[in-house]
Design brief:
By secondary structure, the chain is an alpha+beta fold. It has one domain. The protein is 25% helix and 10% strand. The strands form two sheets. A five-stranded mixed β-sheet has the order 5-3-4-6-7. A two-stranded antiparallel sheet has the order 1-2. It is globular.
Protein backbone atom coordinates (compact mmCIF):
# COMPACT_ATOMS: atom_id res chain seq x y z
CA UNK A 1 0.00 0.00 0.00
CA UNK A 2 1.32 3.42 -0.94
CA UNK A 3 2.11 5.82 1.93
CA UNK A 4 2.74 9.56 1.56
CA UNK A 5 6.25 10.61 2.41
CA UNK A 6 6.68 12.01 5.92
CA UNK A 7 7.68 15.68 6.05
CA UNK A 8 10.30 16.87 8.46
CA UNK A 9 8.62 18.54 11.48
CA UNK A 10 9.84 20.13 14.72
CA UNK A 11 11.20 17.79 17.30
CA UNK A 12 10.26 18.32 20.93
CA UNK A 13 13.74 19.64 21.68
CA UNK A 14 13.55 22.16 18.84
CA UNK A 15 10.12 23.37 20.01
CA UNK A 16 11.38 23.84 23.56
CA UNK A 17 14.37 25.79 22.27
CA UNK A 18 12.09 28.14 20.28
CA UNK A 19 9.82 28.66 23.30
CA UNK A 20 12.86 29.38 25.47
CA UNK A 21 14.15 31.97 22.99
CA UNK A 22 10.75 33.68 22.87
CA UNK A 23 10.61 33.73 26.68
CA UNK A 24 14.08 35.32 26.88
CA UNK A 25 13.14 37.95 24.29
CA UNK A 26 9.94 38.78 26.18
CA UNK A 27 11.88 39.12 29.43
CA UNK A 28 14.22 41.56 27.69
CA UNK A 29 11.48 43.54 25.94
CA UNK A 30 8.88 43.86 28.71
CA UNK A 31 10.86 46.31 30.89
CA UNK A 32 11.62 48.37 27.80
CA UNK A 33 7.93 48.42 26.84
CA UNK A 34 7.03 49.41 30.38
CA UNK A 35 9.49 52.29 30.22
CA UNK A 36 8.04 53.43 26.90
CA UNK A 37 4.54 53.44 28.42
CA UNK A 38 5.75 55.50 31.39
CA UNK A 39 7.43 57.99 29.09
CA UNK A 40 4.27 58.27 26.99
CA UNK A 41 2.14 58.98 30.09
CA UNK A 42 4.68 61.51 31.31
CA UNK A 43 4.61 63.29 27.95
CA UNK A 44 0.81 63.30 27.95
CA UNK A 45 0.79 64.74 31.48
CA UNK A 46 3.13 67.57 30.48
CA UNK A 47 0.95 68.28 27.44
CA UNK A 48 -2.06 68.43 29.77
CA UNK A 49 -0.34 70.96 31.99
CA UNK A 50 0.64 73.08 29.01
CA UNK A 51 -3.04 73.22 28.07
CA UNK A 52 -3.76 74.31 31.63
CA UNK A 53 -1.24 77.08 31.08
CA UNK A 54 -3.39 78.36 28.21
CA UNK A 55 -6.52 78.12 30.37
CA UNK A 56 -4.99 80.01 33.30
CA UNK A 57 -3.45 82.59 30.98
CA UNK A 58 -6.75 83.24 29.19
CA UNK A 59 -8.67 83.53 32.43
CA UNK A 60 -6.05 85.91 33.88
CA UNK A 61 -6.07 88.05 30.75
CA UNK A 62 -9.86 88.31 31.03
CA UNK A 63 -9.40 89.61 34.62
CA UNK A 64 -6.57 92.13 34.18
CA UNK A 65 -3.89 89.59 35.01
CA UNK A 66 -5.31 88.50 38.37
CA UNK A 67 -5.63 84.93 39.57
CA UNK A 68 -8.78 83.40 41.13
CA UNK A 69 -9.89 84.47 44.61
CA UNK A 70 -9.45 80.92 45.83
CA UNK A 71 -11.06 78.99 48.64
CA UNK A 72 -12.54 81.56 51.00
CA UNK A 73 -14.56 81.31 54.17
CA UNK A 74 -16.49 84.43 55.07
CA UNK A 75 -19.95 85.26 56.33
CA UNK A 76 -21.46 84.51 52.93
CA UNK A 77 -19.60 81.25 52.37
CA UNK A 78 -18.00 82.69 49.24
CA UNK A 79 -16.09 80.21 47.06
CA UNK A 80 -14.07 81.00 43.95
CA UNK A 81 -11.90 77.92 43.64
CA UNK A 82 -9.93 77.03 40.51
CA UNK A 83 -11.96 73.97 39.49
CA UNK A 84 -15.09 76.04 39.05
CA UNK A 85 -13.52 79.38 38.10
CA UNK A 86 -11.63 77.84 35.17
CA UNK A 87 -14.59 75.69 34.11
CA UNK A 88 -15.76 77.93 31.25
CA UNK A 89 -12.33 77.50 29.68
CA UNK A 90 -11.96 73.71 30.03
CA UNK A 91 -15.55 72.40 30.28
CA UNK A 92 -15.36 70.75 26.86
CA UNK A 93 -12.24 68.83 27.92
CA UNK A 94 -12.94 67.51 31.46
CA UNK A 95 -10.17 64.92 31.09
CA UNK A 96 -7.73 67.80 31.52
CA UNK A 97 -8.30 67.37 35.26
CA UNK A 98 -6.58 63.99 35.15
CA UNK A 99 -2.93 63.05 35.00
CA UNK A 100 -2.67 59.98 32.70
CA UNK A 101 -0.97 58.00 35.48
CA UNK A 102 -3.69 58.78 38.04
CA UNK A 103 -7.07 58.41 36.37
CA UNK A 104 -8.93 56.29 38.91
CA UNK A 105 -10.49 58.27 41.80
CA UNK A 106 -9.95 57.29 45.40
CA UNK A 107 -13.72 57.33 46.02
CA UNK A 108 -16.55 56.30 43.68
CA UNK A 109 -19.92 57.91 42.93
CA UNK A 110 -21.45 56.51 46.13
CA UNK A 111 -18.62 57.72 48.36
CA UNK A 112 -17.21 54.21 48.70
CA UNK A 113 -13.48 53.56 48.69
CA UNK A 114 -12.02 52.20 45.45
CA UNK A 115 -8.90 50.11 44.94
CA UNK A 116 -6.94 53.14 43.70
CA UNK A 117 -3.88 53.86 45.83
CA UNK A 118 -1.73 56.97 46.23
CA UNK A 119 0.30 58.30 44.53
CA UNK A 120 -1.63 56.96 41.53
CA UNK A 121 -5.15 57.77 42.75
CA UNK A 122 -7.21 60.77 41.69
CA UNK A 123 -9.10 62.82 44.28
CA UNK A 124 -12.91 62.71 44.21
CA UNK A 125 -15.59 61.90 43.19
CA UNK A 126 -17.60 64.86 44.58
CA UNK A 127 -20.92 63.66 45.95
CA UNK A 128 -22.72 67.02 45.76
CA UNK A 129 -22.39 70.54 44.41
CA UNK A 130 -20.23 72.21 47.03
CA UNK A 131 -20.78 75.92 47.61
CA UNK A 132 -20.06 76.90 44.02
CA UNK A 133 -16.42 75.79 44.04
CA UNK A 134 -16.98 72.16 43.04
CA UNK A 135 -19.73 70.29 41.20
CA UNK A 136 -21.16 66.86 41.75
CA UNK A 137 -19.06 64.32 39.85
CA UNK A 138 -15.86 66.39 39.79
CA UNK A 139 -12.61 64.49 40.26
CA UNK A 140 -9.03 64.94 39.15
CA UNK A 141 -5.37 64.40 39.96
CA UNK A 142 -3.95 67.93 39.74
CA UNK A 143 -3.87 70.48 42.52
CA UNK A 144 -3.29 74.22 42.59
CA UNK A 145 -0.76 76.14 44.63
CA UNK A 146 -3.27 78.16 46.65
CA UNK A 147 -0.64 80.82 47.29
CA UNK A 148 -1.14 81.95 43.68
CA UNK A 149 -4.71 82.99 44.53
CA UNK A 150 -5.91 86.60 44.73
CA UNK A 151 -7.99 86.95 47.91
CA UNK A 152 -10.09 90.12 48.29
CA UNK A 153 -8.45 93.05 50.12
CA UNK A 154 -8.59 92.62 53.86
CA UNK A 155 -9.16 88.85 53.68
CA UNK A 156 -6.59 86.37 54.98
CA UNK A 157 -7.94 83.01 53.71
CA UNK A 158 -8.00 80.38 56.45
CA UNK A 159 -5.68 82.58 58.50
CA UNK A 160 -2.98 82.71 55.78
CA UNK A 161 -1.66 86.18 55.10
CA UNK A 162 -3.03 87.78 51.94
CA UNK A 163 0.29 89.59 51.52
CA UNK A 164 2.03 86.26 50.97
CA UNK A 165 -0.18 85.37 47.98
CA UNK A 166 1.07 86.04 44.45
CA UNK A 167 -2.39 87.21 43.29
CA UNK A 168 -1.30 88.00 39.70
CA UNK A 169 0.56 86.51 36.76
CA UNK A 170 2.52 89.78 36.48
CA UNK A 171 5.17 89.18 39.14
CA UNK A 172 8.92 88.55 39.20
CA UNK A 173 10.52 85.11 39.26
CA UNK A 174 7.61 83.39 37.50
CA UNK A 175 9.80 80.51 36.27
CA UNK A 176 10.16 79.21 39.85
CA UNK A 177 6.58 79.82 41.04
CA UNK A 178 4.50 76.61 40.80
CA UNK A 179 0.83 76.98 39.85
CA UNK A 180 -0.70 73.58 39.06
CA UNK A 181 0.93 70.22 39.78
CA UNK A 182 0.36 66.52 40.25
CA UNK A 183 -1.34 66.39 43.62
CA UNK A 184 -3.18 64.08 46.02
CA UNK A 185 -5.80 66.78 46.66
CA UNK A 186 -7.26 69.80 44.87
CA UNK A 187 -4.48 72.00 46.16
CA UNK A 188 -2.79 73.41 49.23
CA UNK A 189 -0.52 76.08 50.70
CA UNK A 190 2.92 74.51 51.29
CA UNK A 191 5.33 76.01 53.84
CA UNK A 192 9.09 75.57 54.16
CA UNK A 193 8.43 74.22 57.67
CA UNK A 194 6.33 71.30 56.35
CA UNK A 195 7.53 67.80 57.22
CA UNK A 196 8.85 65.19 54.81
CA UNK A 197 6.59 62.39 53.51
CA UNK A 198 7.38 59.18 55.35
CA UNK A 199 6.08 57.13 52.40
CA UNK A 200 5.38 57.71 48.74
CA UNK A 201 1.93 59.22 48.36
CA UNK A 202 1.41 60.30 51.97
CA UNK A 203 -1.51 62.71 52.16
CA UNK A 204 -0.72 66.10 53.65
CA UNK A 205 -3.47 67.00 56.08
CA UNK A 206 -4.12 70.36 57.73
CA UNK A 207 -1.20 72.76 57.30
CA UNK A 208 1.24 70.03 56.24
CA UNK A 209 0.41 70.33 52.54
CA UNK A 210 3.80 69.87 50.88
CA UNK A 211 3.32 66.11 51.22
CA UNK A 212 0.34 66.21 48.84
CA UNK A 213 2.61 67.52 46.07
CA UNK A 214 5.91 65.84 46.98
CA UNK A 215 5.71 62.27 45.65
CA UNK A 216 7.05 59.93 43.01
CA UNK A 217 4.36 59.77 40.33
CA UNK A 218 6.63 60.21 37.30
CA UNK A 219 9.90 58.30 37.74
CA UNK A 220 11.37 60.26 40.63
CA UNK A 221 9.08 63.27 40.89
CA UNK A 222 5.93 64.92 39.60
CA UNK A 223 5.05 67.31 36.83
CA UNK A 224 4.19 70.96 37.34
CA UNK A 225 3.01 74.08 35.56
CA UNK A 226 4.79 77.31 36.51
CA UNK A 227 3.68 80.91 36.41
CA UNK A 228 5.64 81.51 33.21
CA UNK A 229 3.25 78.87 31.77
CA UNK A 230 5.95 76.32 31.09
CA UNK A 231 5.50 72.71 32.23
CA UNK A 232 8.32 70.51 33.48
CA UNK A 233 9.15 67.64 35.76
CA UNK A 234 9.81 68.55 39.40
CA UNK A 235 12.38 66.15 40.95
CA UNK A 236 11.27 64.73 44.28
CA UNK A 237 13.84 66.47 46.47
CA UNK A 238 13.53 69.92 44.87
CA UNK A 239 10.06 70.91 46.13
CA UNK A 240 11.44 73.06 48.95
CA UNK A 241 13.50 75.01 46.38
CA UNK A 242 10.39 76.33 44.62
CA UNK A 243 8.99 79.75 45.51
CA UNK A 244 5.53 78.73 46.69
CA UNK A 245 4.65 82.11 48.20
CA UNK A 246 6.24 85.55 48.55
CA UNK A 247 7.85 84.77 51.92
CA UNK A 248 8.71 81.13 51.26
CA UNK A 249 12.34 80.58 52.31
CA UNK A 250 13.92 78.34 49.66
CA UNK A 251 17.07 77.98 51.81
CA UNK A 252 15.27 76.35 54.77
CA UNK A 253 14.27 73.04 53.20
CA UNK A 254 15.28 69.62 54.56
CA UNK A 255 18.93 68.62 54.23
CA UNK A 256 20.20 65.46 52.56
CA UNK A 257 20.70 63.95 56.03
CA UNK A 258 17.11 64.76 56.99
CA UNK A 259 15.82 63.16 53.80
CA UNK A 260 17.77 59.98 54.58
CA UNK A 261 16.56 59.96 58.17
CA UNK A 262 12.88 60.92 57.78
CA UNK A 263 12.04 59.69 54.26
CA UNK A 264 13.99 56.46 53.90
CA UNK A 265 11.83 55.37 50.95
CA UNK A 266 13.33 58.24 48.91
CA UNK A 267 17.02 57.50 49.52
CA UNK A 268 17.54 56.31 45.95
CA UNK A 269 16.63 59.71 44.51
CA UNK A 270 19.28 62.43 44.04
CA UNK A 271 19.33 65.40 46.40
Amino acid sequence: MWKPPRGKGFTLIELLVVISIIAVLMAILMPALGMVRKQARNTACLANLKHWGLVISMRANDHNGSMVSGWLQDANGVRDYWINSFRPYYSKEPKMLLCPTAKKPEYDETGGRTAAQHPFAAWGIAQTDQYGWMRKGDFGSYGINDWTNNPPPGVDPLGRKRAWHWRSINVKGVANIPVLLDCLWMGGRPEHTNSLPTQNGEFGAGDDRMKSFCMDRHSGGTNGLFLDFTARKVPLKSFWRLKWHRQFDTTKGPTAEEWDRDAAWARKYPY
